[in-house]
Design a protein that fits this description.
The complex is a heterotrimer.
Chain A (H helix, E strand, L loop, with lengths): L10 H28 L2 E3 L6 E3 L3 H8 L1 H34 L4 H9 L6 H12 L5 H8 L10 H29 L3 H9 L4 H12 L1 H18 L1 H7 L11 H11 L3 H31 L1
Antiparallel strand pairs in A: 1-2
Helix pairs in contact in A: 1-13, 2-13, 3-7, 3-10, 5-7, 5-11, 7-10, 8-9, 10-13, 12-13
Chain B lengths: L3 E10 L2 E11 L4 E5 L6 H9 L6 E6 L2 E2 L10 E4 L11 H12 L3 H14 L15 H14 L4 E5 L7 H18 L2 E6 L2 H7 L2 E6 L2 E6 L1 H6 L4 H6 L6 E5 L7 E2 L2 H9 L4 E5 L12 E12 L3 E7 L5 E7 L10 E6 L5 E3 L5 E2 L1
Parallel strand pairs in B: 3-8, 3-9, 6-7, 7-8
Antiparallel strand pairs in B: 1-2, 1-4, 4-5, 9-10, 11-13, 12-14, 13-18, 14-15, 14-17, 15-16, 18-19
Chain C lengths: L14 H27 L4 H5 L11 H10 L6 H32 L5 H10 L9 H10 L6 H9 L3 H12 L2 H9 L4 H12 L1 H16 L3 H6 L8 H7 L10 H21 L1 H12 L1
Helix pairs in contact in C: 1-14, 3-14, 4-7, 4-8, 4-11, 11-15
Classes of the chains: A mainly alpha, B alpha+beta, C mainly alpha.
Keywords (chain B): ATP-binding, Cell inner membrane, Cell membrane, Membrane, Nucleotide-binding, Sugar transport, Translocase, Transport
InterPro entries (chain B): AAA+_ATPase, ABC_transporter-like_ATP-bd, ABC_transporter-like_CS, ABC_transpr_MalK-like, ABC_transpr_MalK/UgpC-like, Mo/tungstate-bd_C_term_dom, NA-bd_OB-fold, P-loop_NTPase
Family (chain B): Belongs to the ABC transporter superfamily.
Amino acid sequence: MEKRVIFKGWLLPLLLLTPQVVVTAVFFFWPAGQAVWQSLFIPDPFGLKSQFVGLGNFEFLLRDPFYRASFVTTAVFSLLVTAVSMGVALYLAVLADRLIKGAGTYRTLLIWPYAVAPAVAGVLWLFMFNTRVGVVSWYLGLLGYDWNHVLNGGEAMGLVVVASAWGRISYNFLFFLAGLQAIPRSVIEAAAIDGAHFWTRFRTIVFPLLSPVTFFLLVVNIVYAFFETFGVIHTITSGGPQQSTTILVYKVYADGFVGQDLGSSAAQSVILLIVVGILTVIQFKFIERRVHY
Amino acid sequence: MATIRIDNVKKRFGQTEVIHGVDIDINDGEFIVIVGPSGCGKSTLLRMVAGLETVTSGEVQIHGKRVNELEPMDRNIAMVFQNYALYPHMSVFDNMAYGLKIAGTAKAEIAERVDKAAQMLQLGDYLDRKPRQLSGGQRQRVAMGRAIVRKPAVFLFDEPLSNLDAKLRVQMRLEIKALQRDLGITSLYVTHDQVEAMTLADRMVVMNAGVAEQIGAPMDVYQDPRTMFVGGFIGSPPMNFLQLRQASDDSMRLPPQIADRIEKAEGPVTVGVRPEHLSLDANGEARFSGRLRYVEPLGAETLVHLVTEGGEQITVRQDGIAQLPEAGSQCVMSSAAEHICLFGKDGARID
Amino acid sequence: MARLPESGMVEKRGAGLWLTHLGLIAGVLVIVFPIWLAFVASTVSQPEIVRPPMPLWPGDQFFENYSKALVSGINAPVARMLFNSAVMAFGIAIGKIVISILSAFAIVYFRFPGRNLFFWLIFLTLMLPVEVRIVPTYEVAANFGMLNSYSGLIFPLIASATATFLFRQFFMTVPDELAEAARVDGARPMRFFWDILLPMSRTNIAALFVILFIYGWNQYLWPLLITTDPSMNTIVMGIKQMFPSGDDIADWPVIMATSILAMLPPVVVVISMQKLFIRGLVDSEK
């Protein structure tokens, strides 16, 4: 899709582009280039000079059990966050879509957690499950369950998943509801006349028609879980216990800033760049298709 | 006030040439309509005159001055677009005044000119409205008003009526014609609608596939089409065309002076005759026969559709009250010899 | 979203309708509960919290807790952090809108050498969050002396193409004839931009502003790295700094009051501009 040629000249458009190009070059391409460059070196312990190691950092990373574990952790975490937030959102959207009146009210009540920062969401959930003062952990204790996410890796993972998924429900809900409301009533009514009950209709008609939205949300939520949940992890678990909640982005931070292992951190950045690149391509292909329907 | 001269103008988009060298000379104050099917290059030609497309080769002159390299704003033109292109966030007044404001015209004069144009177009009560609050016809008038207030040397119209419904189109057609006559501004008008072309034009240009097939006064073009395309495109229902296999076969009997011309021509010849020049009798010199398929009574007139033995369609236009044979019967049609047009294999007229 | 009543007649009458409402209300309660609890915690005293279970209904310490947070905070006054967050959020939202509307205008309405190259350079940055290139970006900012500064908080986060992409999409839907009419009217490019394109983009700008404001306000990792001076902390990252490092018990009422204050501005923006926000969100992701 292109406009007809409209305005002449080349100096003005270049001037108009300059701010964005400068900002992008300085804060995007330069750092990205540096990441690639640094990933090929190992700095000496005093940070005075670096030694070229080629792909050594990458080799080391891929053999490092902690890094591999972090990959698995990230995959588990992302899938759980995506499944939980999309599942709950779809459930609520289907209910709201059944209403003739009041869907708007529920939408208002459900969208605002979107505005809550992941880091703040982390603090809220940490407060509820805090081992000393948490309300939920206290009631769990009454039921005979000894909640302790500070020591138990599984519980820590559960908590960061729930806290991350919580803020994401609003977003998914909005898209699911819009998708459901875009399905022509007549299609569903025709199915009803054909004798299909609610669940059959949902399975055979609504869900297939919703699949573009679902696929889109799948990609977006995975990206979210990969990168934007740093705040949740950092506030609740700081990657622990025993790295059980150290997702890849957290590890870049922990190795780079806390551990000061710049070469490894840069190599991790490069690997993440590649992962995002792949996800971006998937999403772009999908967006293109959506635009061209 | 200006003349326009389009001199061997060509346009290429990439490798494909879409306009193959068009020449048109437009007199001062003349209303020229370019008519043709979609994709024939008529809009592109207009946009080259406007300066919205570059001219690949040839020359466009306005008032004797080459304008190929000039920006639209420096050509002293105004243009009315098919979708009106009104600025959606501006009031009617601001829409009309925008060009004058940019030109730095004094406020008082802007107000005066806009008011005058609004009066002329019966838009006086709507000057504060936004385009979306107007009907289609009113928007069309605003677009006209925007062109008028500039007092340009040339009006350019790009299918200005095609977004209106049929009734409004007839009304606006009359208004545009009257307005152009009053203002006397040289106008170039593009349309695919041959009725618009016939009614509006002082002279019309029939375009097909990037070529101006014929230029002339509407009735001249109608009565004397120089190509098969023009005969088929101008007139409704269109001219009947019959492929001639032999000088005289059973379904067609042509008088000797026509048969002579056919003999002399090279290659196959097509006979053209307009529906209203045919009658369902044997009184004319040129006779045709066919089987009547169906009849469309339209009130004032009746269209009779026949098919020849060779399977070709013929339409005859009759008075509304004429007695007609039944469907399925064999009929004879005839026409005066001077109404018969002959076209050679390249579609050009044979005289 | 208005729908004709008869078009939804397939079901949900009587009991079914109530069950639907019940399901939704349950969902809303679960979603809202963490925030409710935070609000309650921000209105009671520390002793009430440290002896679980804490109350589930607001107490009478509202003013004490909030004024303590706003005026003194723990490391820095929360009022100061709110101000920092506001500067950052407005800076990012306005900065991104300005640079991306200009570049989208250039890319859509001009043809110039290198256009495709610039186009792809800008769009490569789409979806690449700052988290990924965090260490080198930090070094760049440090080299420019941007640590503990507003420009350090703002500029590195402006480098993204989402807004450019959105404006490009919108400009594509603006009819060509409008620009041509403006050209015939004598408008030069920047005049067309100011008089026609910018006013026509008002709703898009507003919708984008909402999204970007929230994006900027909710940043965490970047301010965490770039602001070591507590007086430059933003509120979202400052909360974590309020937790004691050792085994001491956190000052929960003040922390929760700060949390409520941290989420208030974006929540107000989202709810009050709901229509614009939803439009902006759905458009920008399409």
